[in-house]
């Protein structure tokens, strides 16, 4: 579901309050020495949702809003990843996210006089997907179950289940056959 948020509105001001609070938590997370459980506890405070103990998050970890980032079970997030989540980012179970991945659910308008206003469009990454190092996912994209996004790809369109995509913009280069689900 796409929506808009304009500068100077009450909704925008409310977001700024949450951003300020969460930026303190993100800074605390990335500048201290923490156990794996402490990392999950701080990220749970940032997202306002309990992060399952089976998930592993490597630091540094960045999010600009935090409250619209939803992380499944047995997820691995490598270091340096950035989640621009105001529009919503949904990460399923068993997802692997490589280092320095950027997932954005926010865009700006092209018209210069409106450029500071935001267009929000959620990103959904389904179960068992794997995003390689330095991948960028743009607003509104759905990455299908078991999909693989090759390192350095820029994903601007939906990725079908069981597809391998690569390039800028990302395109399907292979289909994964004979998955365990296919053998049932």
From TrEMBL:
SUPFAM superfamilies cross-referenced by the UniProt entry: Trimeric LpxA-like enzymes
Matches recorded under Pfam families: Hexapep (PF00132)
GO MF annotation, one: O-acyltransferase activity
The UniProt record lists the keyword Glycosyltransferase: no
UniProtKB keywords: Repeat, Transferase
InterPro entries the record matches: Hexapep, Hexapep_transf_CS, Hexapeptide_acetyltransf, Trimer_LpxA-like_sf
Lineage top rank: taxon: Bacteria
PANTHER family attached to this UniProt entry: ACETYLTRANSFERASE C18B11.09C-RELATED (PTHR23416:SF23), SIALIC ACID SYNTHASE-RELATED (PTHR23416)
Family that this chain belongs to: Belongs to the transferase hexapeptide repeat family.
Protein name (database record): DapH/DapD/GlmU-related protein
Species classification: Bacteria, Bacillati, Bacillota, Bacilli, Lactobacillales
């Amino acid at each position: 579901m796409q929506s808009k948020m304009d500068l100077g509105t009450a909704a925008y001001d409310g977001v700024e309050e949450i951003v300020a609070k969460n930026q303190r938590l993100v800074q605390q997370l990335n500048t201290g020495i923490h156990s794996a459980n402490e990392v999950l506890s701080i990220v749970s405070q940032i997202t306002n949702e309990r992060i399952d103990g089976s998930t592993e998050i490597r630091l540094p970890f960045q999010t600009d809003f935090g409250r619209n980032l939803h992380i499944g079970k047995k997820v691995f997030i490598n270091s340096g990843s950035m989640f621009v989540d105001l529009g919503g980012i949904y990460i399923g179970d068993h997802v692997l996210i490589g280092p320095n991945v950027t997932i954005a659910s926010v865009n700006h308008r092209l018209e210069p006089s409106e450029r500071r206003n935001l267009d929000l469009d959620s990103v959904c990454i389904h179960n068992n997907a794997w995003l390689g190092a330095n991948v960028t996912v743009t607003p509104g994209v759905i990455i299908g179950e078991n999909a693989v996004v090759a390192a350095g790809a820029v994903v601007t369109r939906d990725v079908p289940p069981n597809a391998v995509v690569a390039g800028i913009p990302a395109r399907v280069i292979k289909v994964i056959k004979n998955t365990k689900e296919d053998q049932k």
